[in-house]
Amino acid sequence: MTNSATLHLPGQEPLEIPIIRGSENERALDISLLRAKSGYITLDPGFVNTGACSSSITYLDGEKGILRYRGYPIEELAQKSTFVEVAYLLIHGNLPDQYQLTEFSKKLSNHSMIHEDMKHFYDGFSSTAHPMVSLSTMVASLSAYYSEATGRASVKDLHINSARIMAKVRTIAAFSYKKSIGQPFVYPLDSLPYCANFLNMMFSVPAQPYEIDEDHVKAMDLLLILHADHEQNCSTSTVRVVGSSQANVYASVASGILALWGPLHGGANQQVLDMLLQIYENGGDVDGFVMRAKNPNDSFRLMGFGHRVYKNYDPRAKIIKEHCDRILSKLGVQDPLLEIAKKLEERALLDSYFVERNLYPNIDFYSGIIYRAIGLPSNMFTVMFALGRIPGWIAQWKEMHEDSQTRIARPRQIYIGENARTYIPINQR
Ligand code: ACO
């Protein structure tokens, strides 16, 4: 097996570039010494072809539509595991035994309350503020309460800080929702498992008894598993970049939440629902929206379609679609938006524009329909994505800090501005 490639640059001796191979035979050229040896850098806007780290957390093959967490196929985890177990797997590297799982779950219960002072933060937000704003702000603010998380020290204390983030993010998210609808905050209950605890904080009110629907719990658990990690996407790379400066884990995760919010990334799940509603209100005009998405002079894109790495059906979207009908019928919900989504997908997948560009539904295409059936408003969809992604961000942050090759993230650039010029005093310009 060849271990290097030879690079011929104009006017220079041939340069040997080491070839790196991953455990699934992924190949990379190690160009870390390229500039030192040749004076050249590589230019790759959007990091389309750039590996930023080696990782043993998540494997994905976008051509074949494969996704595995720590070696376990996503299909199997979705069918057999729970979100808390998957979180443990991602953070610690292996599935927990019963004792480990119980202890991990206990930690998530014990840390679910937020400092009472933090409740006042909500008074500073208008009730119309997007819940991603309060989520990111308040996760960053946790550093003010847990100062031992500062800098490198936060790696040592990660077991406790990761439990705090995972546990408290639920409470913060549910309180944001309660604030937005003017209802009193409902405190977490240690006796309830992870998802049930969240749903109770979201939907129970002091004035009436609330019964947690097990089907809602299962649907949420499934969606959180599917969102738990996705290797070096925009938000995870943000968490790593911010963490590489030795910013604490709360600051790093808060940055990830903000990166996730963008409509081209996790924010797409809310946009998909808005798009489906628009189509519904336009009398189900699926063809008109497909035409708009294809028009190069129209900035409109089919939200929930396309992916940087999947050039095949996103395996997470496949699982969600398979569960959509079952979950909705179990919940007794008939949602016309599901039919519109299916029609839109069918129409797009027959169209040469989408076929030639390998554009398939991604994770955001069908997830909102399930969240809607559970009773979540669309502005909470990206918050739900963030809740699911927290263990992935923590695992990636931990792995980065434990990797002796980690250096502060600092890309280079090709400067295309003015050459050196002389300063002209203002009265002479
Ligand atoms: N609708 C219409 N055309 C599309 C779409 C879409 N959803 N997605 C990509 N295209 C077209 C582009 O216009 C481009 O066409 P061209 O070659 O004629 O210029 C081609 O497909 C390639 O698209 P790029 O934007 O270059 O692909 P990139 O990898 O940079 O972007 C992205 C990926 C951002 C996901 C893109 O597909 C998109 O905007 N999708 C809609 C938003 C979305 O659903 N985001 C969620 C992604 S999943 C996640 O982050 C959790």
Description:
The chain has about 425 residues and is mostly helical. It folds into 2 domains: about 5-50, no CATH class; about 50-405, Citrate Synthase, domain 1 (Orthogonal Bundle), CATH 1.10.580. The chain has 18 helices and 6 strands. A 3-stranded antiparallel β-sheet has the order 1-2-3. A hairpin with a 4-residue loop joins strand 4 (about 60) and strand 5 (about 65-70). Helix 9 (about 215-225) packs antiparallel against helix 17 and helix 12 packs across helix 17 (about 365-375). It starts with a strand and ends in a 27-residue tail after the last helix. About 40% of the residues are buried. The structure holds acetyl coenzyme *A (ACO). The site of acetyl coenzyme *A has 20 residues, from loops.
